[in-house]
Design goal:
Bound molecules: nicotinamide-adenine-dinucleotide, zinc ion
CATH superfamily of the largest domain: Dehydroquinate synthase-like - alpha domain
Number of domains: 2
Order of helices and strands: EEHEHEHEHEHEEEHHHHHHHEEEH
Number of helices: 13
Helix content: 40-55%
Number of strands: 12
Distance between the termini: 47 Å
CATH architecture of the largest domain: Up-down Bundle
Strand order of the largest sheet: 4-3-5-6
Length: about 350
């Protein structure tokens, strides 16, 4: 078992081991020291694949299990779908001494975490991520939420899970494009300083190192989250590729998935950094080649004007400025505040 300690206000462990999906009950009992009602919140696809196994494991450890599944897809990371989760929890009379089990990728994970944050002003929750993206990134750090019509994750809360259980075996059922979404966020950690992780994607075979990949990405994320839990300083580095990525997701009406959009966003951030003289051309070439080697896109069909409109409704804006994350080399990035009035010109340098 690989374990990462996340030392936030309420500390918790990320536990990584093959076969954990069938031991969720034992792990939860060991964490809580007693049984309760466990509400599995998931999506329909994950429910069909793993819902029964997780429910059986919880029941075998003595938990009373209730289960609710939303439709899969970013278009369902919406208030109406989230409300469905909450009404279900209320109808099933979940109490403050009960627990939420967020089972699935980043979408049910973010939504179930936000439901746990709000329901009865907060109930305990654990994350059982089932996509690579959720294992290397979204299940840790406590950002929970849903999208509003005006943009991604615009309604949410910082609310940490009590435990995260990663079973790399469940990645076997992921479609290749969904696996690639997680590769994109992993490459992000490579660009932020995890050199060996980047090397696995640039030259090697990352699938030979899956558990170690998850451990390293989460360790890197935990360090940043511990230093800046509320995302007002260095945690913003984790947004590499995300300002333009979110703008691409929104312009595509969420047909471009999060990881794919972040891949394009990272490539554009590197091109912009090069145009501004912040990094050499080799940084751009290496990043683009690494993304392409891993079946990820690096170009967008959207114009600088379209991307600017979408980016300006992003919550990362503070007053008249917006902070971009720009690579200064492979493994090094910096925060780069820009005037909102300059944004379209800068984006034009990247897409142009
Ligand atoms: N909270 C954070 O810090 C954070 C960080 C990064 C991304 N995110 C969010 O995460 C979301 C993207 O997450 P995602 O890519 O995991 O999306 P997702 O949850 O929609 O999962 C992608 C698809 O894979 C399916 N799936 C999940 N696990 C499976 C499995 N084991 N086998 C087969 N199919 C499976 C799902 O049903 C879905 O159709 C975005 O909304 C993004 O904003 C949040
Ligand atoms: Zn992301």
């Amino acid at each position: 078992m690989r374990i990462v300690e996340v030392k936030t206000g309420t500390p918790y462990q990320v536990r990584i081991q093959r076969g954990l999906i069938d031991r969720v009950g034992e792990e939860l009992l060991a964490l809580l020291g007693k049984t309760c009602k466990a509400a599995i919140l998931t999506d329909e696809t994950v429910n069909a694949l793993y819902g029964d196994r997780v429910a059986a494991s919880l029941q075998n450890s003595g938990f009373a299990v209730i289960r609710y599944a939303i439709d899969p897809g970013e278009e369902h990371k919406a208030l109406a779908d989230w409300q469905g989760m909450l009404e279900f929890m209320a109808q099933q009379q979940l109490t403050r001494s009960d627990c939420v089990v967020a089972l699935g990728g980043g979408i049910p994970g973010d939504m179930a975490g936000f439901a746990a944050a709000c329901y009865l002003r907060g109930v305990k929750f654990i994350q059982v991520p089932t996509t690579l993206l959720a294992m290397v990134d979204s299940s840790v750090g406590g950002k929970t939420g849903v999208n509003l019509a005006s943009g991604k994750n615009q309604l949410g809360a910082f609310y940490q899970p009590r435990m995260v259980l990663c079973d790399p075996d469940v990645l076997a059922t992921l479609p290749p494009e969904t696996l690639a979404d997680g590769v994109s966020e992993s490459i992000k950690y490579g660009m932020l300083g995890e050199n060996e992780v980047l090397d696995w994607f640039e030259h090697g075979d990352w699938t030979a190192h899956t558990e170690e990949l998850i451990r390293r990405c989460i360790t890197a994320k935990a360090a940043v989250v511990e230093a800046d839990e509320r995302d007002t300083g260095c945690r913003q580095l984790l947004n590499l590729g995300h300002t333009l990525g979110h703008a691409i997701e929104k312009n595509s009406k969420y047909q471009v998935t999060h990881g794919h959009a972040v891949a394009i966003g990272m490539a554009l951030a590197a091109k912009l950094a090069h145009q501004l003289g912040l990094c050499d051309e080799q940084t751009v070439t290496r990043l683009v080649a690494t993304l392409e080697r891993n079946h990820l896109p690096t170009n967008t069909i959207y114009t600088a004007a379209q991307l600017t409109d979408a980016a300006l409704s992003d919550k990362k804006r503070t007053g008249g400025t917006l902070t971009l994350v720009l690579p200064t080399g492979i493994g090094h990035c910096q925060l780069h505040p820009v005037e909102v009035s300059q944004l379209e010109n800068l984006i034009a340098l990247a897409v142009g």
